[in-house]
Write a structure and sequence with these properties.
- The protein is built from 3 helices and 5 strands; from the N terminus they run E-H-E-E-H-E-H-E.
- 17% of the residues are buried.
- A 5-stranded antiparallel sheet has the order 4-1-3-2-5.
- By secondary structure, the protein is of the alpha+beta class.
Length: 115
């Protein structure tokens, strides 16, 4: 009897990290930056984007006045190995939004419609 043992040589999938950047939009004004623009900035820098969403920071207050910033963010899932490169592009680690224990976080929302 011949017993054949095989082992699969698989590499684990890369660990991913969520990053975000304020979308730069202002209250009472048409959206000026899109999720596609944000995704393109990352991919042009050689960073693979697994998922991208518009989101809103929660647990924070902003003044309600036309021209003031919104709490809108662009949220991306990237390979953890690319985090440092994303930080140099002005993105932040989204884990920091919800790990502070002060009730802040984010929720996925519909992207604002450009005019």
């Amino acid at each position: 009897t011949l017993l054949l043992a095989t082992t699969a040589c698989t590499t684990p999938p890369p660990t991913t990290t969520h990053i975000y950047k304020p979308d730069g939009n202002k209250q009472c004004e048409p959206a000026t930056s899109s999720l596609a623009d944000s995704t393109r900035q990352l991919t042009n820098a050689g960073i693979e984007v697994h998922n991208a969403h518009c989101a809103t920071q929660t647990g924070m207050a902003v003044i309600t006045v036309c021209g003031a910033p919104t709490l809108g963010i662009h949220l991306h899932e990237i390979n953890s190995l690319d985090l440092q490169e994303a930080l140099t592009l002005g993105y932040e680690d989204a884990g920091k939004l919800s790990e502070q224990g002060n009730g802040t976080g984010y929720e996925i929302t519909a992207c604002p419609a450009p005019d």
